[in-house]
C-alpha cells in the first residue's frame, strides 16, 4: 500500500494501463537519477478536464525548454487524459502526467536515441474546503532560494518541496516567497496582490511558473472590470496589501487572511476575491 492512496488504481505507463502496484521504471530512468523530466496537472470537474488546451500548451513549452521531443500529438494527449478519467469513478479528479527523458547510462549530458518515459494517473480531487474558501488561509514568508528556470514545470522540485515543508512545519498551507525583495510565488501557487481595487501580479518570466489559473484570472479580471497590472511587486507592497490570494490547479483561488501572523487587510477575504471566486465557480458550472 502507498500512503494516502486507496486501493490499487490503474495507471498509464509507456503505452499500457496497469495497476499502480505493478507500474515499474528502471533505476536508470533519468527522471529518477536526475529529475530530468516535466509534469502537468489537469483538474477535472464533473469528469470534464478544465482548460485542457492551456495545460497541453504548457506541457509542450516545458518539453521544448529541456529538449525532450513530445511523443504525442494534442489529440493523443486528449485521448490519454480521457482514458485516465475513465479509470476513476470520481466526478472531480486530478490527472497527473509526467514525461522523463528516458532510460540511459548515467551521464549528465543528453543521451542519443533515447525514448521518453510517459506516465499518467488520475486521483480523486478534494477541492478546497468551504471553510477555506469562506474564511481564507494563513501563510508565512520565506526567501525564494530555487533555481532560475521556474517557468519550466520540471520534476526537479526539491526547492519547492523544502518551501512547502517550511509551511507545514509552521502549520500553514503555503508560503509566500520573495527573491531580492520582490514577490515571486508560493511553493506550488501563484500569488496575487490587491491594492485599492487593483489586482497586481508578478511578471510572467523565468522566476515564476505561469499557472494555468494565471491566464484564467487574467480573463476573469477583464470580464469583470477588475484592473490588472503585471509588474515587479515589492515586499512593502505585499505587506500593505488590501487582499492576497493564491491560485493553482488544486487550490483554485483562495484568499490569504494572514502573512507571518499579521492580518492581510482587515483579516477577512475581500471583494476582489469574491468576484473572482464567483467567476471561477461559474466557469466550472459551464463545463
Description:
The protein is an alpha+beta fold. The protein has helices at residues 30-34, 52-65, 74-86, 130-135, 158-169, 212-223, 235-239, 271-285; strands at 10-13, 16-19, 37-45, 48-49, 93-100, 117-124, 137-143, 174-179, 182-183, 190-195, 198-201, 228-230, 243-248, 252-259, 262-263. The protein has 2 domains: 10-124, D-amino Acid Aminotransferase, Chain A, domain 1 (2-Layer Sandwich), CATH 3.30.470; 130-285, D-amino Acid Aminotransferase, subunit A, domain 2 (D-amino Acid Aminotransferase, Chain A, domain 2, Alpha-Beta Barrel). It is 29% helix and 28% strand. It is globular, with a radius of gyration of 19 Å. InterPro entries: Aminotrans_IV (IPR001544), Aminotransferase-like (IPR036038), BCAT-like_C (IPR043132), BCAT-like_N (IPR043131), Class-IV_PLP-Dep_Aminotrnsfr (IPR050571). Keywords: Pyridoxal phosphate.
Amino acid at each position: 500500500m502507498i500512503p494516502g492512496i486507496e486501493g490499487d488504481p490503474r495507471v498509464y505507463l509507456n503505452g499500457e494501463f496497469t495497476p499502480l502496484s505493478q507500474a515499474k521504471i528502471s533505476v536508470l530512468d533519468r527522471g529518477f537519477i536526475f529529475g530530468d523530466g516535466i509534469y502537468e496537472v489537469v483538474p477535472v470537474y464533473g469528469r470534464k478536464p478544465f482548460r485542457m488546451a492551456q495545460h497541453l500548451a504548457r506541457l509542450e513549452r516545458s518539453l521544448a525548454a529541456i529538449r525532450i521531443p513530445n511523443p504525442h500529438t494534442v489529440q493523443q494527449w486528449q485521448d490519454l487524459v480521457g482514458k485516465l478519467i475513465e479509470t476513476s469513478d470520481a466526478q472531480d479528479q486530478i490527472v497527473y502526467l509526467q514525461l522523463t527523458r528516458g532510460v540511459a547510462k548515467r551521464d549528465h549530458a543528453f543521451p542519443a536515441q533515447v525514448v521518453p518515459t510517459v506516465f499518467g494517473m488520475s486521483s480523486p480531487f478534494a477541492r478546497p474546503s468551504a471553510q477555506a474558501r469562506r474564511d481564507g488561509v494563513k501563510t508565512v514568508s520565506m526567501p525564494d532560494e530555487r533555481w532560475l528556470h521556474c517557468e519550466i514545470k520540471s520534476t526537479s522540485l526539491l526547492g519547492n518541496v523544502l518551501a512547502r515543508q517550511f509551511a507545514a512545519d509552521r502549520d500553514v498551507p503555503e508560503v509566500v516567497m520573495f527573491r531580492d525583495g520582490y514577490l515571486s510565488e508560493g511553493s506550488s501557487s501563484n500569488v496575487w496582490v490587491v491594492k485599492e481595487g487593483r489586482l497586481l501580479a508578478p511578471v510572467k518570466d523565468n522566476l515564476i511558473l505561469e499557472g494555468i489559473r494565471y491566464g484564467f484570472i487574467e480573463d476573469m479580471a477583464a470580464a469583470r472590470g477588475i484592473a490588472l497590472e503585471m509588474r515587479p511587486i515589492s515586499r512593502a507592497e505585499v505587506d500593505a496589501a488590501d487582499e492576497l490570494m493564491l491560485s493553482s490547479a488544486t487550490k483554485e483561488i483562495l484568499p490569504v487572511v494572514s502573512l507571518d501572523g499579521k492580518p492581510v487587510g482587515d483579516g477577512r477575504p475581500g471583494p476582489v476575491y469574491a468576484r473572482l471566486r464567483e467567476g471561477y465557480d461559474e466557469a466550472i458550472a459551464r463545463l
